[in-house]
């Protein structure tokens, strides 16, 4: 589904913040991306959701060359990827319903066809009572759930989440992990960046990619606990 080969990235003329990144993501798997602050997790996620181009290396997404993607192809590929941003990025003047409906409206889904799925999705994240509220009236955990609902409403093949439990208490973190895990069970490949080892321990089947100063900590580029070895441990 995704292949990185010797990918490097520098911002402007600075040093490389990612170096020699090589890995593959397999469809339907769950991956954690971890590592100390400043290791490059957000930057790696930006490459994954096509918000950034690498300075060198090969990135293939869904079988396409993601580095030399034409402007016309980019939105199409991007639609296959759901993103939960670290700072939510909800639209402040839109209600919970309209925030979650946004990706479907942008994709041209007619109003009568989106009401059912959006209402169901909001119910799934437990926010039916907040349907008409603006994001500013919600708690951090509630806003995070809106952001997750918006990211998955289009049933993306790949879901990328940057510290999605960073702003919530441990109990809410477990609930949010359950949402990601449920999406994963429905077939979505998940990449979740986190510092939270207790969260990672709750998902023992997940593969863990660890970044250290811009490099994956296994120099061969093999991901720890590769999915093929599931069940053998
Ligand atoms: N737009 C930018 N311009 C220049 N340098 C940047 C930019 N974004 C990130 N960096 C630098 O790249 C490095 C990696 O940053 P990144 O945000 O990817 O790390 P991170 O692992 O996500 O950190 P955190 O866990 O604190 O969010 C850091 O040294 C950071 O200062």
UniProtKB/TrEMBL annotation:
Keyword tags: ATP-binding, Cell cycle, Cell division, Cell membrane, Membrane, Nucleotide-binding
SMART domains referenced in this protein's UniProt entry, alphabetically: AAA
GO biological process: cell division
Membrane topology term: Peripheral membrane protein
Pfam families referenced in this protein's UniProt entry, alphabetically: ABC_tran
GO cellular component: plasma membrane
Keyword set includes Cytoplasm: no
InterPro entries per UniProt: AAA+_ATPase, ABC_transporter-like_ATP-bd, ABC_transporter-like_CS, ABC_transpr_LolD-like, Cell_div_FtsE, P-loop_NTPase
GO molecular function: ATP binding; ATP hydrolysis activity; transmembrane transporter activity
Domain of life: Bacteria
Protein localization: Cell inner membrane; Cell membrane
Domain ABC transporter: from-to ranges: 2-232
Protein purpose: Part of the ABC transporter FtsEX involved in cellular division. Important for assembly or stability of the septal ring.
Protein family (similarity comment): Belongs to the ABC transporter superfamily.
Assembly description: Homodimer. Forms a membrane-associated complex with FtsX.
Protein name as annotated: Cell division ATP-binding protein FtsE
Natural source organism: Croceicoccus ponticola
